[in-house]
From TrEMBL, chains A, B:
Transmembrane segments: none annotated. The gene is Xpnpep1. Residues 328-543 form the Peptidase M24 domain. One of its GO terms (biological process) is proteolysis. Metalloaminopeptidase that catalyzes the removal of a penultimate prolyl residue from the N-termini of peptides, such as Arg-Pro-Pro. Contributes to the degradation of bradykinin. One of its GO terms (molecular function) is metal ion binding. InterPro entries: Creatin/AminoP/Spt16_N, Creatinase/aminopeptidase-like, Creatinase_N, Pept_M24, Pept_M24B, Peptidase_M24_C, Peptidase_M24B_aminopep-P_CS, X-Pro_aminopeptidase_P. This is Xaa-Pro aminopeptidase 1. It is an enzyme of class 3 (hydrolase). Residues 558-620 form the Peptidase M24 C-terminal domain. It is found in: Cytoplasm. Keywords: Acetylation, Aminopeptidase, Cytoplasm, Hydrolase, Manganese, Metal-binding, Metalloprotease, Protease. One of its GO terms (cellular component) is cytoplasm. The lineage of its organism: Eukaryota, Metazoa, Chordata, Craniata, Vertebrata.
Length: 624, 624
């Protein structure tokens, strides 16, 4: 990996920073955040501006270029990678280390008095703008929005913004029509006394209209905004995608409709001017609802007195609670996904043990191959983490030729993978050994399993927030002085983003919404030993009502039902460390895997994988 | 309980709200918060202004008086009490109910355009001022500070501000001299690059100078402020308390000292002008450190650019970590406290069972009597909660003649009590039955006990925040659909306030600081059945290092050691619901009670109580 030479690019960027063609007044610094105009976690190639200007293409990082300096802020996961990918023009700012200045402090320390700092107002979220602007102003500088993205002006071979065909989802997948979703949204708007709602997150647009796209890898979304009024629906989207008869039919663009359900299709780029027109039309007490993570540009289009900002939008919250059709779809997707993994693990056992020719990349490709054989498979839901031995300890590992390791009978293998099917999204991690695990490896695996079970079997009152369950996942590890440095679970979309809000299970205190029946999250404790191995056991679980002996204040209780039905390798379990209750949980889980996945393997005529499943789901016996 | 007639008082208040003698311009509304100038939890009678003006004397409530209205905001604990204590002049605003307006919204709805709303700037914390001021301003009104408290101007028989003698604590109690505390504080100030630190909380002043007072009931504090510079120490305190030779000697007021340790004593009332002088003397980049909960008046004395505000002060954090002398003192205090409770419970068994003449008040008084016989007893640390049967379900119950119930062999009795000794502060809850508890009562008690043990025996990494342990206390209750609606634990002072920051164990997400070895918190899960009974099991526990098999990232682990050593009534335990590990915990705990408290009962010649202790600490036997 040799660094990208950026001398010429930086020279060009510094020129446009002073060019009256792009800036009203010269800016002495320009901020290049990662991220797109929708605050997406995964971004399209045309939005990888920070990677283009610096060479550093990790998932998190912010570049700032001044007349003299170029600096890159990123976190511990990427110190090494950033150092490798960037040339000497760049200073690496290691976030999380004590002596690393914040972006604001650094700017104040290097800028001449009364400087202007530019940023693309579409890329920076409103709350970040506010913080940075305040810090700069108090030091005598100004943060200024620059409409045209300055990196784009010098990015001559910038890829086109993707504009791929759309997929329409009918009621059998979504359970609720887009019309009914609009009705429900408008009722939430009435409750909060807002007249307009602006949809800025890509998965929220996709969910609202029961459409899917493929503009961004792994996320079945498409570039669009929507503005919903009490009597109007405006969809901002580019390309000839609205010419597709199936889409026109789905959105009833050519039907005679009640005016409040008539969708006005507008160019993607006209969102700002349209929103400004809305902002200008408001009377006192009329409000516009936006996510507080919406871009500064869109937020500013609405005068401050008229804004109604919330951390989670009503769509985000409605989307998180899956209806019957979505839940059934997720079940089907997880059954198909389990079939693919049974095939894979059976194949691995046959290949790894005697031949030793399977690498991490080959295993990942094989997993994709088996998944792609399943009905309604669309794509993977994230880059497969296929890691053996020490690579397993790198939590966000993705095998590349430079690091690619061969699976063997001597090392633990960790596979974290998932797919998008038309009926649901999967995300599953299994950790296994193809030879004989050491007592220590089994011990650690068993603590992780105990944590997994503690969350999965937890019963808790309605209204409980996920972060209150996080310690259950760690307790067995903590007892022995062990831990893992990531959260325990995230929300999972229904044929949508594999990571979604507003709920999760984490020690980090974020403003998560309470868990409700119908929500779907992951349960994925782990243990990682640097340089040796990684262990993680992940199921996707559905929040369901729990039957309890009593019912305090008639609140009702909740628990989880695993949707993922893939055997947990019993060879890795030290049965004597399990309680009888935990042992029963494993046996019940495996019984269900055998019944449900076994029937599907049978149906698909996958007899060898079925034999593997039966072997792997033999009950554990605990010696008292 | 008949309501206080406030017609005349409100008339007078409305007059002074317009009187040029007190207000520059008339105010159309006046806010009367509960609380004093130090944001204390417990306040002196002279600070009970809200109770004086309204009649409502619960611990939480805010009164707002306009020309037409008088309204009182309080929470669910006090709806009934407030309704009883206030006359028809007042509207009760039930906080937490959906339709109850916030104070800001209500003000906006009732005030004429362009109104002024007055408040005492010494009583309102700066963060509350900011929020209210912003809301009022955006509706065209103004929040204005009124220096003279308007309630005080009409409170003709207002009690004097207490000014009781001080108690000096020597090194054997405090472990660290006040000089060394000043040195440590200045080092924290250097680290954060601040030149001044303003001590506003009463317990922080007391801790810093190793002094105690009795100006506020239950809290051994005295009215004072301090301003610490890098070379100066200013103590703002009234009365002839500084004439006491012991205090002069302790503070070395008459010694020749290095100038940076010379304490300048100034009048309590001069804090504002002195702080304004400090504020006016600052050069750019010179900062003054204040709690973000300090009063608006003091915060405003420092120009905004010079303020350094934190939720927890360095004194608050240092005070929470007890040193060896403090820990030993806390141990001694808890041994004495346990002796008193063994005497009490032995006495109760003798009195309640055959005679049935003991009321909640008699039991509380008897508890105080036994405590007062112990060495270095000062006072109670809070109003004793002595409650039987349905009264036990009222979480903040305090027996009064109207509610006073007689203890019997048919009801559960809950006693939550504690004391201030010169060497430490105690807080303990025991729940017991003098007859035969029902199977259901035992079941509930046992779930609470399991939660208590789960916290007490928890092992967790250094750096863990207390709120991550809260669910451990609830898990056994949750499994059966039960719960309790309060936090699990609070910090406890060392011969200081029984509730102190910055740590605690609660499902409420507050900005708690991580637990460290030496911190002391309570562990007090409960279960309450309205109209029937209350159960709570509370120990004060010390955070100590834990030995673990492994040591991930060399972080080290922590656990708790109970300081409270009072038997937990085994009659209330359903042994079959305990695991063997839990059963062992109870037996080990009781063994320690027997050894440590038994020896002290022996030493004090309290033979009958010793016999009771031995009976009550018989080991549990679990039938497998």
């Amino acid at each position: 990996m040799s660094p990208k030479i950026t001398t010429e690019l930086l020279k060009q960027l510094r020129q446009v920073m002073k060019s009256p063609k792009y800036v009203r007044e010269p800016v002495q610094a320009y901020i290049v955040p990662s991220g797109d105009a929708h605050q997406s976690e995964y971004i399209a190639p045309c939005d990888c501006r920070r990677a283009f200007i610096s060479g550093f293409d990790g998932s998190a990082g912010t570049a700032i270029v001044t007349e003299q300096h170029a600096a890159m802020w990123t976190d511990g996961r990427y110190f090494l990678q950033a150092a490798h990918q960037m040339d000497n023009n760049w200073t690496l700012m290691k976030m999380g280390l004590k002596d690393t200045p914040t972006q604001e402090d650094w700017l104040v320390s290097v800028l001449p008095e009364g400087s202007k700092v530019g940023v693309d107002p579409f890329i920076i979220p409103a709350d970040q703008w506010k913080r940075m602007s305040k810090a700069l102003r108090s030091a005598g500088h100004d943060l200024v929005p620059i409409k045209e993205n300055l990196v784009d002006t010098i990015w001559t071979d910038c890829p086109q913004r993707p504009c791929k065909p759309l997929l329409t989802l009918d009621l059998s997948y979504t359970g609720v029509s887009w019309r009914d979703k609009i009705v429900a949204l408008r009722s939430k708007m009435s409750e909060r006394k807002v007249l307009w709602f602006v949809v800025t997150a890509l998965d929220e647009v996709a969910w609202l209209f029961n459409l899917r796209g493929s503009d961004v890898e792994y996320n079945p979304v498409f570039f669009a905004y929507a503005v919903i009024g009490m009597n109007t629906i405006r969809l901002f989207i580019d390309g000839d995608r609205m010419m597709d008869p199936a889409v026109r039919e789905h959105l009833q663009l050519d039907s005679t409709l009640e005016p409040e359900f008539k969708i006005q299709v507008m160019p993607y780029g006209s969102i700002l001017s349209e929103l400004q027109a809305v902002g200008a039309s408001l009377s006192p007490k009329e409000k516009v609802w936006l996510s507080d993570k919406a871009s500064y540009a869109l937020t500013e289009a609405i005068p401050k007195a008229y804004r109604y900002l919330t951390p989670y939008t009503p769509i985000c919250i409605a989307k998180a609670v899956k209806n019957g059709s979505e839940t059934e779809g997720m079940r089907r997707a997880h059954i198909k996904d389990a079939v693919a993994l049974c095939e894979l693990f059976n194949w691995l056992e046959k290949e790894v043990v005697p031949k030793g020719t399977v690498t991490e990349i080959i295993a990942a490709d094989k997993a994709e191959e088996f998944r792609s054989q399943q009905k309604d498979f669309v794509e993977l839901s994230f880059a497969t983490i296929s890691s053996t031995g020490p690579n397993g300890a790198i939590i966000h590992y993705k095998p590349v030729p430079e690091t690619n390791r061969t699976l063997s009978v001597n090392e633990i293998y960790l596979l974290d993978s998932g797919a998008q099917y038309k009926d649901g999204t999967t995300d599953v991690t299994r950790t296994m050994h193809f030879g004989t695990p050491s007592a220590y490896e089994k011990e650690c695996f068993t603590y992780v399993l105990k944590g997994h079970i503690a969350v999965s079997a937890a019963i808790f009152p309605n209204g409980t927030k996920g972060h209150l369950l996080d310690s259950f996942a760690r307790s067995a590890l903590w007892d022995c002085g062990l831990d893992y440095l990531h959260g325990t679970g995230h929300g999972v979309g229904s044929f949508l983003n594999v990571h979604e809000g507003p709920c999760g299970i984490s020690y980090k205190t974020f403003a998560d919404e309470p868990l409700e029946a119908g929500m779907i999250v992951s349960d994925e404790p782990g243990y990682y030993e640097d340089g040796s191995f990684g262990i993680r056991i992940e199921n996707v679980v559905l929040v369901i009502p729990a039957e309890t002996k009593y019912n305090f204040k008639s609140r009702g209780s909740l628990t989880f039902e695993p949707l993922t039905l893939v055997p947990i390798q019993t060879k890795m379990i030290d049965v004597n460390l399990l309680t009888q209750k935990e042992c029963n949980w494993v046996n019940d889980y495996h019984q269900k895997c055998r019944e449900v996945i076994g029937a599907e393997l049978e149906r698909q005529g996958r007899h060898e994988a079925l034999q593997w499943l039966i072997r792997e789901t033999e009950p554990l016996i605990r010696v008292q």
